[in-house]
What does this fold into?
Amino acid sequence: MNDTAAPRPLPGVGLGRGASGAAALAVLLVAVVVTGLWHVTQGTSGVGFWDLLRHLFGAREDVGGVPVTDVLTGSRLPRMLAGIAVGVALGVGGALLQSVTRNALAAPDTLAVTAGSYFALCAVAAFGLAVPLWASGAVAFGGGLLAAGLVLGLVGTASGAGSTRLILAGSAVAMALDAASAMLLILFKESTTGLYAWGSGSLAQLNIDAAMRAAPVIVVVLAIAVLLARRLDVLGLGDDTAASLGVPIRSTRVIAVFCAVLLTSISVTLAGPIAFVGLAAPVVVRLVANRIGVLSRHGFLIPACGLVGALLVLLADDVLRAVLGAQAAASIPTGIPTSLLGAIVIVILALRLRDSGAARDAPRARVATRSRRRFLTVVVVAASLLVAAVLAGLLAGSLWLRIGDIALWLQSSAPDLIGRALDDRAPRVAAAVVAGAALALAGTVVQGTVRNPLAEPGVLGITAGAGLGAVIVVTSGAAGGRPALIVTAVAMGLGTFALIALLAWRGGLLPDRFLLIGIGCGYALSDISTFLLLRADPWDTPRILTWLSGTTYGRSFADVLPVALVLLLATPAVLGMRRQLDLLAIDEDTPRIFGVRREGARLALLTIAAVVAAVSVIAVGVVGFVGLVAPHIARGLVGVRHGRIIPVAMLLGGLLVCVADALGRTLIAPSQIPAGLMMALVGAPYFVWLLRRSRG
It folds into this structure.
């Protein structure tokens, strides 16, 4: 787009180039048709290519006692048409979002549009509201629009949203919405049966009606998007240039975002949240545009993204069924392979991006120097609140106890009912405290070493790797019990960190690149966990989903011990490196001036953080936002020196998880809300406030 100087005439779209663009679209269309025909030949009924060919030439026969016509019209064609509709909708939606934000990482998923639409539909199902298809689309549209508005409001679009900032904001909002959706799935199991698998995206259709009703809307929105093409071309030159050339910037952005959200909501209503097609399709087209320049013009780019999106969805479904077999693949949502593809795209783009640091200066600049007296006061208050939270955690639950009951329990003379209650609660409270402290320590180290107070271990994929290790043990039925789970979880967490560091290490461990690669790996590992869960015993799914949501349920002191031991070793080690951490948190040059080996110190500190975060999974499963919230609150209370931040953050981390666990056990007793979901619902609004405060 750099050669564009005026909206009329646009250079490079002459007859010759227009013909090459039309030829490229024709090739893509043929590829979609061929892939669709391959798609129609696959299925569980045994109707193959030659059966369909004979049917095409007029033969009317049954295969396995089932009429070929019924198979074709009742299953194969609806699935194929749904795949095309979803792919076109997501591809065009992603292209529009990337154009208005001028960010190659913008997509319905990274802007939380998909998560918002899915949450809205889960809420409707959970509360038993019967709505027709068009109303379901409206519900999904409303949820997606609110989520997109929130993320774009946080990061801004006027000058192009920074990649790290955009992904952090979208990931955090999506995590909160996913947590709320998971809570609905757990609390309303009866009315949301099947939504977990559908939540990963499924092309399975009851009939052809849904796809046929969605098609006209998609065509109309696609036409509107193409009509915006010239405006979007000029908008790519920058806001000032576009305004001087008469392009209405605000209305163009609003219309484009509305179109993208509407297309995404149609896709979610039709097939569930099929992830990252809206990210991958525009990226593929823009890469091809480096060779076929006319594809960079939105008049060609938008339909090309739609066709590539359809091709990706159909290919993902085709390859999945070709590899696993139609019967085995029937239980695996199409969104799993597309999400893996999107994670790979994020990593590839991260490797191509320069380190900008746009998201990290403002928050640190507002932190004042605090006195030693202030530090000691904060430590005493935080410790007192933690003790109070521990007492409340022991007393609260479906059976409320008194302090005297704890005294009797400690003397082993409590009544049987009280004894059983405290035998269950005490390990859970201990697990919450040590895991919260561990996550806060890891978050403090991560934020300091990558110089970004918006980062945390959960966003980096370390806890996702540890969670995958635990899922592997549980779903495979491997021998070894709890020790095997612990070893595998820690090994996978450390392996994830090693992979992220290896991919990010190119001329040094640059912070923004490390963050984005960690986010991409986290998405991929979460998808693999979902894949394993869906192939496991379906009766285990709610239990494992609860564990992955972060819970202390069923914990014993044996689960607390490894985390406590790692904390006893890691805390002095990090405090011993507090000077290096202080210098790394300033900029890239200061550590070298003071003789600190920057890359060595950064790698050592991040390795400690990875170990601590991975081990915390043993005690509470996968809990997010603690490593974000606790260090930031500590920094605001005691200043920027890590020798003070670390103890305060650990106290606050233990306090936050302990309170979240107690509330989860109490609010809807005797039912329980996982502590991780409670933490996400509390931490996400805080993150939103923090990101809003740091904007600019």
Q: What stands out?
A: Confidence is low (pLDDT under 50) at residues 1-13, 355-367. Strands lie at 62-63, 66-67.
